[in-house]
């Protein structure tokens, strides 16, 4: 069965976004790449053994997500974890800081 037929059978519509340029799934591909490199790869600190089943992935993924959001330093946030940058953003927004508005 073709992909588009499967989508139709499920009542879904294919994406009408751009294809083959810098905007084509860039964010998703980046996140998946980081997940594979930092969580799934052999030797990852999140693995306790081989990954043989979906359940094995489901067991290690929450630890990686927690680490990614609360510990991993991100350059674009001034070498701070995303959760810390997000908390500061909302505190500034609540205080009426005009620099926090998009």
From TrEMBL:
Q: Which InterPro entries match?
A: Integrase_cat-core (IPR001584), RNaseH-like_sf (IPR012337)
Task: Spell out the SUPFAM superfamilies in the cross-references.
Answer: Ribonuclease H-like
A single Gene Ontology biological process assigned to it is: DNA integration
Query: Domain Integrase catalytic spans what residues?
Result: 14-82
What domain of life is recorded for the organism?
Bacteria
- Signal peptide segment: none
Protein name as it appears in the record: Transposase
């Amino acid at each position: 069965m073709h992909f588009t037929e499967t989508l139709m059978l499920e009542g879904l519509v294919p994406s009408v976004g751009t294809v083959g340029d810098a905007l084509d799934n860039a964010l998703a591909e980046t996140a998946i790449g980081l997940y594979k490199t930092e969580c799934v790869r052999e030797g990852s600190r999140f693995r306790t053994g081989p990954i043989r089943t979906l359940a094995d992935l489901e067991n290690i993924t929450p630890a990686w997500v927690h680490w990614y959001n609360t510990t991993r330093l991100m350059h674009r946030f001034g070498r701070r974890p995303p959760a810390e940058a997000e908390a500061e953003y909302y505190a500034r927004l609540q205080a009426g800081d005009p620099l926090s508005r998009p």
